[in-house]
Amino acid sequence: MSDLRIVDSHVHLWDLSRARYGWLQDQPLPNNPAGDMSPIAHKNYLLDDYLVDTAGWRVDKIVHVEAGQPIGQQLPETGWLQSLADQRGYPHGIVAGADMLDPDLDALLEAHAARRNVRGMRQIICWHKDPLKTYTDHDLLHDPKWVEGFAKLARHGLSFDLQLYPSQMATAAIIAARHPTIPMIVNHAGLPTDRDAAGIARWRQGLRLLAAQPQISIKISGLGITDRAWTADSIRPVVLECIDAFGTERAMFASDFPVESVHGTFDAFYSAFDAITADFSADERDRLFARNAEAIYRL
Fold first, then answer.
1. Which residues in 124-135 are b (16+ Cβ under 10 Å) and which e?
2. Whole-angstrom Cα distance, residue 129 to residue 217?
């Protein structure tokens, strides 16, 4: 454990009595490219559970990221989170859910943005030719209607959490270049899911294309998704590649808890991040563990 100040920019909470999450409650559980979710399925994960998981670490602030509610249920999730923030101070920032193809997107974005702690939107757009890895039936980045919806974020001052695969990064970089006023945050280190030499090369090149757009930053999180038997040594090249591409001013560590708890404890992941960056300056480490998240999510 460490006395590092942490701002955890990727946390999920859910109360199964308030909403239904198919990926946690369907019988049988659906395939999830992030791994076997059975250890966290069919049970609540509330703020107090997160505080237990992070005990011993100085987590000053958190950003909640939408947890997979369908169209029509995304605003109630945000309302619940805002009421929690009003009562307990956590979460300090909210990345709400929205489908950029929602016919009522304008009204939804306006309603989300009216909540005091909302900072941005997320829609998982990971498309992969492997049906066991894909989240969508087609690549939404090539859908003009989706891009038209994405562009609406600008008028509401909202960022976009970009969870995608390396094969989509070149297209995402082009979209970002055309919409420079929409901050974008790459989720889970860009998910280097194809681990052969060609897949890693594609991921590295994609990171550089995205990093060339100054409004894009990256969260170093979710590393167990693509490295199920991870160790500090095995994730070190991924962590350092992300930092090398985006610099210490546009990269940040995050937990992705409790989803990532199926691959390891909070203590294990943050101890690895701590060890990997041990030779960084105190200022760089404060940026990576806390200050960048505060700046990017305007906390």
1. bbbbbeeeebbb
2. 26
Tokens of 268: 């294990």
Quote the pTM value.
Answer: 0.97
Question: For residue range 236-275, what is the model confidence (pLDDT) as tens digits?
Answer: 999 999 999 999 999 999 999 999 999 999 999 999 999 9
Amino acid at 48: D
The size of the chain, in residues, is: 299
What amino acid occupies position 145?
A: K
Taken in order 209, 211, 217, 218, the sign of the CA dihedral is positive
Please tell me the predicted confidence (pLDDT) of residue 3.
82
Q: What is the 3-state secondary structure (H, E, C) of the chain?
A: CCCCEEEEEEECCECCCCCCCHHHHCCCCCCCCCCCCHHHCCCCECHHHHHHHCCCCEEEEEEEECCCCCCCCHHHHHHHHHHHHHHHCCCCEEEEECCCCCCCHHHHHHHHHCCCCEEEEECCCCCCCCCCCCCCCCCHHHCHHHHHHHHHHHHHCCEEEECCCHHHHHHHHHHHHHCCCCCEEECHHHCCCCCCHHHHHHHHHHHHHHHCCCCEEEEECCHHHHCCCCCHHHHHHHHHHHHHHHCCCCEEECCCECHHHHCCCHHHHHHHHHHHCCCCCHHHHHHHHHHHHHHHCCC
Distances (CA, A) of 8 to 74, 222, 266, 278: 22, 13, 11, 19
- Residue identified by tokens 């100085």 is 58
pLDDT at 216 over 80: yes
d(CA 76, CA 19): 9
CB atoms within 10 A of CB 279: 8
Angle of the 74-88 helix axis to the 105-113 helix axis, nearest 10: 0
Place of tokens 């039936």: 137
> Would you state the pLDDT for residue 1?
60
The Cα 176–Cα 214 span in angstroms is 9
Residue 2: pLDDT over 80 = no
